[in-house]
Write a structure and sequence with these properties.
This protein has 211 residues and is α/β, with parallel strands linked by helices. The chain has two domains: 135 residues, 3-Layer(aba) Sandwich (Rossmann fold); 61 residues, Winged helix-like DNA-binding domain superfamily/Winged helix DNA-binding domain (Arc Repressor Mutant, subunit A, Orthogonal Bundle), CATH 1.10.10. Helix content is 48%, strand content 14%. It is built from ten helices and six strands. It has a six-stranded parallel sheet with strand order 2-1-3-4-5-6, with helices on both faces. Helix 2 runs parallel beside helix 3. The protein starts with a strand and ends in a 7-residue tail after the last helix.
Length: 211
């Protein structure tokens, strides 16, 4: 049986490169390319998809939150993170969200193929330079983002990407006043007092790259 792969990355050049690598492999079919997390969620539901190669820093919904939603809706789909982030926190958050593999950008194409085949067989895959957060270390790896609910993390990303309350309400199907309530709750939970500090926090923790 062929392995159906979806590529999710906000950089077209990365998607093109990955497609060329994967389509050169026997038994792997690229079924789509998503430019952000929201599109990845939609595509995972409307086309054949066994494995998703997922970036973290994407607009709208980042790769970790997209992974969380996809793995909840379709637990049979395997997600392999391909990211520039190499911290224990990011690795912890990715696997906590349901990812089965984690690779750093810049790895050789054959390692991406190896990771795909490994997770399809039911294993976990940690690429070169990626350390598995062992059980005793997981408490250290936990992120302050764990204090926030899934919805609060969605609002946080949209806020730091410059969306107005009205825009956030429309995107998330909320009452127009609700995003402001979420914003206040988020800042209180994180101990942050202004938007500039909130943006800095979001970049540091991989919520958005703001590229």
């Amino acid at each position: 049986m062929p392995i159906n792969v979806l590529i999710a990355d906000d950089h077209a050049i990365v998607r093109i490169g990955l497609r060329k690598i994967l389509e050169a492999q026997r038994g792997i079919i690229v079924t789509g390319e998503a430019a952000d997390g929201r599109e990845a969620i939609t595509m995972s539901e409307d086309r054949p998809c066994d494995v998703i190669i997922m970036d973290i820093a994407m607009p709208g919904i980042n790769g970790i939150e997209a992974t969380r939603t996809i793995c909840s809706n379709r637990p049979e789909v395997k997600v392999v993170i391909l990211s520039m982030y190499d911290t224990t926190e990011h690795v912890y958050r990715a696997f906590q969200a349901g990812a089965c593999g984690y690779l750093l950008k810049g790895v050789a194409g054959d390692e991406i193929v190896t990771a795909i085949r490994a997770v399809v067989r039911g294993g976990l895959y940690y690429g070169k330079g990626v350390e598995s957060p062992s059980a005793p270390e997981q408490s250290k790896a936990k992120s302050p983002l764990d204090r926030l609910s899934h919805r609060e993390r969605e609002v946080l990303q949209l806020v730091v990407e410059g969306k107005s309350s009205a825009e956030i309400a429309a995107i998330l199907s909320l009452a127009e006043s609700t995003p402001d309530v979420y914003r206040g709750r988020i800042m209180k939970k994180l101990g942050i007092r202004n938007t500039a500090s909130l943006v800095k926090f979001a970049i540091q923790h991989g919520v958005t790259s703001l590229e």
